[in-house]
Amino acid sequence: MKLLGAVMDYAEHFRFRESPFSHPLYPLCGMAGYLLVITALERIMRARRPFSLRRIVVIHNVFLCLLSLAMGFGTLIEITLHAVREPDGWLSITCDHRGRVMRGRLLFWMYVFYVSKYYELIDTVIMVLKKRPLSFLHVYHHCVVLPLFWMYLRTSMVIHFILVVANSFVHVFMYYYYAASTLGYKVWWKRHLTLAQIIQFVIDLTATYPFVYFYFTHPKGCSGSMRAFIFGQVVGISFCYLFWDFFRKSYQNPIQRAALTKRAVIESESMDEQAVNKRSIQMIGERSHSKHSGPMQRSHVAPESKTNRKSKQEKGSRTLV
Hints:
This protein is mainly alpha-helical.
């Protein structure tokens, strides 16, 4: 109970700038260290067999599943309390021009979410140790969220609670799926999980637009940064594109996939046939050219004159003599 009370007291008076991982070097060093570690591990694992890590993977995914559930509900409860208690109501959780929302327990839960992104880098380490291929989407996603959520916290951008809540609840199902599949259970909604991630990014992009309106129109301004908002929009758009491309390639309709395969085969055969026809035409042209060039070469030989034949006969007669 004392430990729980100490944690609650710490969360009540939490300040981001005085906490670990708040310095600007942390997200930058985190990205650089992450890329160096996975590059080195990939080289080491080339000559080694993949590790099983079944028990570790299950514990890791169950922990992140429960942590995501706590972060989602914790942030949602605190943001709702602020919307009800603050004089400005729902405007306070969009603009927070008084600077009274991004503090205490709400800020603490957002900070926990930010720090959890460093722990989630272990996802990639596990994949490398199991010799699973890494996609650009996977590495890019784990890298870019570090500076993104650091910037949100640094500028006290309260409206990013939408991203925290949406991402946390999606991760509840995602890490549950990873844990279940590691244990050998089949989850029928795997396809819908990727679709839910895409919907999450669309919500993240569109639901944060009120910040722009109040940022420029409110007399007292808003907490947060326009640079952080623009950076978040660029990241969100890139996530939408990359996840949609992954969804399209991974879960394409079997009929469409067969049709595309058939079309590719037909195009390949057509190209081969064109190449054969072109070669045949070249061979016919070469043969035709050789037939016409033979007589022409013979016809260009000048006929031997009578004077030459007579001189040759005289030379022959002299040798005989």
